[in-house]
Design goal:
330 residues, mainly alpha, Peroxisomal Thiolase, Chain A, domain 1, Rossmann fold, three-stranded parallel sheet, two-stranded parallel ribbon
């Protein structure tokens, strides 16, 4: 028997607070439950099925007591962040099976208030398998990256195809006035700034947008330089950089991250010199190597002790490389 069309979502409510150090997770659950039931025109007494997760081994029972719930059916299935999405399906199945008539699904967390880095915090030793992973410092984001790599290996999935998921989720978030990030993103932006090893992310663009809008002053940053570069040179370069209208820099970044020309590399027929800083974290050497491989007979030179600003950081070395390359041109 199919459950499709046998149930309906009749009420929904999202807590408007993203940072609530004055509240507990149970309080957030309670307010969310009241809001959803009010939206449906129901009361807590109408609920006979309860679905939630992430509240501890017996937290579901404690939460039932806190909410004054006396359900006939409960479900605390935990499969990570998507638990509460699966609960909606479980609730529909439970109603179709006659286990309950009115199902309540709630989620509440104080991770943001506690400044807990859900995606990037290391694993805490718990279940036995963790002893083989925790010593190597994996994160939730890193674990997803491993799953993505396996999927790409098994099925030939591309990074661009996976990036479409992020683009779609952001588009959905744009419909929610309470979402933290609502501005649309592109596949190129995800590919350029979403990798685990990549330190420059779309949040940097958000900062630059605030600069353009006059909400923030232009901020000094060292991330485009090698650790070996002196502070005087970095400040000198920054002084010159801020003379450029920030709108130009923003447009440049958006163009770079919104357009992927790698498929066109093999069409280049002119002699090409690719120069990279060994310590470049914005466009790592691996990307320069990919560029050089894609362009027919391209020459790659990696400059030690230089970052993304290699022509400034190692000006003499850079100029010599260009001079030698130019002298050999036909």
């Amino acid at each position: 028997m199919s459950i499709w069309g046998t149930t309906a979502v009749v009420g929904a409510w999202e807590h408007p607070t993203r940072f609530a150090p004055h509240m507990t997770a149970f309080q957030i659950h309670a307010e969310s439950a009241r809001g959803a039931l009010a939206d449906a025109g129901l009361t807590i007494g109408d609920v006979d099925g309860f679905f939630t997760s992430g509240v501890g081994p017996i937290g579901l029972l404690s939460l039932c007591q806190h909410l004054d719930l006396r359900p006939d059916h409960v479900d605390s299935t935990s499969i990570g962040g998507s638990s509460f999405v699966s609960h909606c399906l479980h609730a529909a199945a439970a109603i179709a099976a006659g286990l309950c008539k009115v199902a309540l699904v709630t989620y509440g967390s104080t991770a943001a208030s506690e400044r807990f880095a859900v995606g990037t915090a290391g694993l805490v030793m718990g279940e036995p398998p963790d002893q083989f992973e925790a010593p190597f410092g994996p994160t939730i984001v890193g674990s997803y990256a491993m799953v993505a790599q396996r999927h790409m290996h098994e099925y030939g999935t591309t990074s661009a195809e996976l990036a479409e998921i992020a683009v779609t989720m952001r588009r959905h978030a744009g419909l929610n006035p309470h979402a933290k990030y609502r501005e649309p993103i592109t596949v190129g932006l995800v590919l350029a700034g979403g990798a685990v090893r990549f330190p420059i992310r779309h949040e940097n663009l958000a900062v630059l947008r605030d600069v353009v809008r006059g909400r923030l002053p232009q901020q000094f940053s060292t991330e485009t330089f090698s650790p070996a570069t002196g502070m005087d040179l970095m400040r000198e370069a920054w002084t010159e950089q801020v003379k450029t209208d920030p709108r130009v820099r923003l447009t440049d970044l958006l163009a770079c991250q919104g357009f992927d020309g790698r498929e066109l590399l093999d069409r280049i027929r002119t002699p090409t010199l690719v120069v990279a800083g060994a310590d470049d974290q914005v466009t790592p050497v691996a990307l320069a190597e990919e560029l050089a491989r894609g362009i027919r007979e391209a020459r790659l030179e990696v400059i030690p002790a230089a970052g993304h600003q290699a022509p400034l950081e190692q000006a003499d070395r850079f100029n010599r490389l260009v001079a030698v390359f130019a002298a050999a041109l036909p």
